[in-house]
Amino acid sequence: MSQKAVVITSLKHADLVSDRPLPVLRDDYILVKTVAVALNPIDWKNVEYIAPPGVLVGCDYAGIVEAVGKDVKKPFRKGDRVCGVTHGSNAVYPEDGAFAEYITAKGDVQMLIPDNLSFEEAATLGVGISTVGQGLYQSLQLAWPTEPITQSPAPFVLIYGGSTATGTLAIQFAKISGYRVITTCSPRNFDLVKKLGADAVFDYRDPAAAEEIHRFTGNELRLVLDTIALEDSAKFCDKAISTDGGDYSALLSVEIARENVRNRWTLAFSIFGEELKFGNSLFPAKPEDKAFAEKFWARRRSCSQRARSSHIRFLCGGRIARRVGGHAGNEGGQEPVSKAIIHPVVILYLHHPHRSNSLVVLMPILIFVLCGLPVLLIEIFARSGHTWTG
């Protein structure tokens, strides 16, 4: 039996194919019939820079469990609504990925979808939640959202890049964990990040902003998550962090060159506890990252009962494809999730229970161009007054 899927067919090019074999269910994986998937920056970066031909594209998904591997510890059952993350464009296991009718996902780092979340909302959680978990709770060791810090006054934490996809999630998690949240973004996004929970926000383009943060925190800032992870952002964070030192966690391997600052960087795909290959670079399996992710995702569902994305807008395929194609000139900016040009979180209906089983046809202009039957794409906006309610 074969299926439709988005696959890298040649270097720097992905296509829709209709003869992709169904994935083999490994013992610690679940088989999922996809309902919605989300497009992340890592997806087009994999196509453009890293991944070899033959791999399945896509990381974030939501869907319905079809089968459960014998070594999965979580009590998933056929018919469960689930969401999470897969290792899309995986050079070691080419069948892994999200952009297909049927996919497999590492069972114990996936999550049941709370009743108050739709498939579309749930599909946006995987990569972002995994990254925030590693950055805030494994690297910086913040108090867990289920066990907020009781210290008064609460410690400061800086989320550099607060209006990015990861930044918006990080603000909410840090706030729920009881911290005083400082963030940076463009002035037009100040209201957005304040609604999400930021206590103070600064314009990252202002040359004096880092020193202003240093003064605002009274030289007490010791926890920093850098969601931009460029040389300039590291320099900014270096100026803001306490002269007594602290912890700096970035989403890429950039560092603050100061002896009293502990540098860490995260690689979300390490949560699967498997060997990773990117280009010619091999990364050994990290069982400790998998163990952490299992614990974090288990607790994450209780937080999800209060979380939902709002301002969902339905767009035609051609329009959103043009917007996604505008990513290249904007890397490193701090734009809101709703822009989609820079940090796109785009939901694609593959086959909804209330629709026919027609698969959306997706392939790239730079990455993907839509064709085939008319379908709806959903863009999740972070401009929300309802993000942490209930």
TrEMBL record:
Presence of keyword Transmembrane helix: yes
SUPFAM superfamilies linked: GroES-like, NAD(P)-binding Rossmann-fold domains
GO MF term set: nucleotide binding; oxidoreductase activity, acting on NAD(P)H
UniProt domain Enoyl reductase (ER): residue ranges: 9-283
Segments passing through the bilayer: 359-382
Keywords from the UniProt entry: Membrane, NADP, Nucleotide-binding, Oxidoreductase, Transmembrane, Transmembrane helix
A Pfam family assignment: ADH_N
Alphabetized PANTHER family for the sequence: HYPOTHETICAL OXIDOREDUCTASE (EUROFUNG) (PTHR45348), ZINC-TYPE ALCOHOL DEHYDROGENASE-LIKE PROTEIN C2E1P3.01 (PTHR45348:SF2)
UniProt record similarity statement: Belongs to the zinc-containing alcohol dehydrogenase family.
Protein name as it appears in the record: Enoyl reductase (ER) domain-containing protein
Organism encoding this protein: Aspergillus tanneri
